[in-house]
Amino acid sequence: MAPRNWVFLLLVFLIHGILADPASQVTQIPFSCSKLSNICNSILYQHNGLTEKNISSLYSVDASQIQTIDNGDSQDHLITVPCSCQNVNNTVAYFYDVSYLIKPRDTFLGVSDQLYSGQAWIGDEDEGFKANTSVTLHLLCGCAEIDSQIMVTYTVQQGDTLIDIANRLSAEVGELQTVNNVLLGEPGFIQPGWVLFVPMYKNGIPPPRPPASKKNIHTDESLAANSNFIANVRTAESTPRGIFTLDNHMEVYEGAPRFSGNHKWVIIFVVLIVVIALLLCMSIIMFMKRKRFQEHHDKEKAKVVSKTMTFHRSASAHTRHLSKENMEDITGFDTERPLVYDLDEIAEATNDFDDSRKIGEGGYGSVYFGILGGKEVAIKKMRSNKSKEFLAELKVLCKIHHINVVELLGFASGDDHLYLVYEFISNGSLSEHLHDPLLKGHQPLSWTARAQIALDTAKGIEYIHDHTKERYVHRDIKTSNILLDNGLRAKVADFGLAKLVGRTNDDDFIATRLVGTPGYLPPESVKELHVTTKTDVFAFGVVLAELITGKRALMRDNQEPNKMKSLITVITRVFEDSDPEGALVSIRDGSLRDSYPMDDLYKMAEVSYWCLSEDPVNRPEVGEIVESLARIVMSSIEWEASLGGSSQVFSGVFDGR
């Protein structure tokens, strides 16, 4: 942008800031939070007239989480969801994530308005909104500190008043105004499309009481700090008054002083003088630097040419290790093509694969920590004779984009090695957190953290089974292939054995060899090499058993040390016992101590036992598992909340808050 244009825009914004009425400045602000492991139950208000079946699918919730509510001549819905603290595009706030499979002609704004009541938080979804791909939508939610309240995310509709909203949702108008800074400038004014947070009383508004402290809502930061956010909630109805828009984001001007007419023109005159002087200075500076700028520009062009040549050299090097058919597989992806990295970049990122950078090792190669382009990454180094596994993972992850699946960034090849570059997941594998965690520098996981990890993992598996254009079987689900981020949220990793299957009832195939990890393999795979989606379900049942017991899938038998005992047998014996609850308590992870809800522990064990059915026909679909675990997570959160904050629900571990 030319300097004169830039200064002109600056002048317009300055004058607007002076003349605009502060009461007309509006913003929809998400609840801020400080700990990424914070989690609570929250309610999303749905007014799009969808059926409960559609809501259940769109929001990944069970029917028990959906409640109807009268709204005049129509019926809307209240959807109870687990609301967690997340960092979304550098905004740390409370969100509930859903996955949406984009259809032709879909737009982010249309999907948000027509399916999710305009409650999706804007990131870079518009740029990545491509048909037949999945996108994660972050729906705004909030946490109430008072046990008698639950926070409702509500989108203002035509004809609404604050009193109507408060009455409909059993809330007090004063508290509603306090929570939403957008209402402070002009309390009586609301506009269709605004997203408000409503502190709803679960059992109705209590009788009048003495004025309460202003700090009755859990924000971790003062509400004043929320004014630093730039509003990212956009709906088709929302047309805020008196606000300039730039790049589809609303700039927030709050707390501007009121000026008399004379004072305004004096200030405008002063601003004009300053701007003119600034223009003169900038013109002189630009004239003096023009030649230097041109030289710099020429150098940058040379760098681009050099980088392009490097890219093609890397691609050429790759062809030396992969067949023509395999290269056609890569270049023929119907979604995003993976980025090809130069070998020098890979070597520099890992300090020439220094042992101090090694963070993992498996049957198909070693994994190293690195930094590429200022971003932390994990780089898997594989021998070139592992091209089959390399291509399997490359082909699958290039087509999969989900919050609970590790993201592939690119690849490289050379020196008789193949390299896969992933996002770096900082908290290691679930296995490290379950098996001797203290020796690996981790604190034992709390019950609620385990339940959430189970749900996250199930959602990742459900996505590759049911929500992609092509159905995949992972074939190596295990705790060491489940990675945890800083907020103890889980991502499924290592797709080197993934296999494409059909979407018919006969979607199994016969493998040419037995693959997978002992202790996680179902009987039909061991005996007949059959592989179906139920193969992953069986392995996930073992993962649930590990979350419950803290034991490995295979362990030494105490009575016969020369033999290995399967965790599958341990879970099976629980439900063959005359007192299954007592048997379950005797095998539960000792690091849980007594900090767990017995009902939810038992329900998770039932899901594990269901998954471990010997006949694959009797095993559940992953969608059924997700529904069951979602109920367990919600119940566990309520149990934690009932303890009055004395447990580790917010930290996820047992080392205190």
Automatic annotation (TrEMBL):
<dbReference type="InterPro" id="IPR018392">
    <property type="entry name" value="LysM"/>
</dbReference>
<keyword id="KW-0547">Nucleotide-binding</keyword>
<feature type="domain" description="Protein kinase">
    <location>
        <begin position="353"/>
        <end position="632"/>
    </location>
</feature>
<dbReference type="InterPro" id="IPR008271">
    <property type="entry name" value="Ser/Thr_kinase_AS"/>
</dbReference>
<feature type="signal peptide">
    <location>
        <begin position="1"/>
        <end position="20"/>
    </location>
</feature>
<keyword id="KW-1003">Cell membrane</keyword>
<keyword id="KW-0472">Membrane</keyword>
<keyword id="KW-0732">Signal</keyword>
<dbReference type="GO" id="GO:0005886">
    <property type="term" value="C:plasma membrane"/>
</dbReference>
<dbReference type="Pfam" id="PF00069">
    <property type="entry name" value="Pkinase"/>
</dbReference>
<keyword id="KW-0418">Kinase</keyword>
<dbReference type="InterPro" id="IPR036779">
    <property type="entry name" value="LysM_dom_sf"/>
</dbReference>
<dbReference type="Pfam" id="PF01476">
    <property type="entry name" value="LysM"/>
</dbReference>
<keyword id="KW-1015">Disulfide bond</keyword>
<protein>
    <recommendedName>
        <fullName>LysM domain receptor-like kinase 3</fullName>
    </recommendedName>
</protein>
<dbReference type="GO" id="GO:0005524">
    <property type="term" value="F:ATP binding"/>
</dbReference>
<keyword id="KW-0067">ATP-binding</keyword>
<feature type="transmembrane region" description="Helical">
    <location>
        <begin position="265"/>
        <end position="287"/>
    </location>
</feature>
<dbReference type="InterPro" id="IPR044812">
    <property type="entry name" value="CERK1/LYK3-like"/>
</dbReference>
<keyword id="KW-0812">Transmembrane</keyword>
<dbReference type="InterPro" id="IPR011009">
    <property type="entry name" value="Kinase-like_dom_sf"/>
</dbReference>
<keyword id="KW-1133">Transmembrane helix</keyword>
<feature type="binding site">
    <location>
        <position position="381"/>
    </location>
    <ligand>
        <name>ATP</name>
    </ligand>
</feature>
<dbReference type="InterPro" id="IPR000719">
    <property type="entry name" value="Prot_kinase_dom"/>
</dbReference>
<keyword id="KW-0808">Transferase</keyword>
<dbReference type="GO" id="GO:0045087">
    <property type="term" value="P:innate immune response"/>
</dbReference>
<dbReference type="GO" id="GO:0019199">
    <property type="term" value="F:transmembrane receptor protein kinase activity"/>
</dbReference>
<dbReference type="InterPro" id="IPR017441">
    <property type="entry name" value="Protein_kinase_ATP_BS"/>
</dbReference>
<feature type="domain" description="LysM">
    <location>
        <begin position="152"/>
        <end position="198"/>
    </location>
</feature>
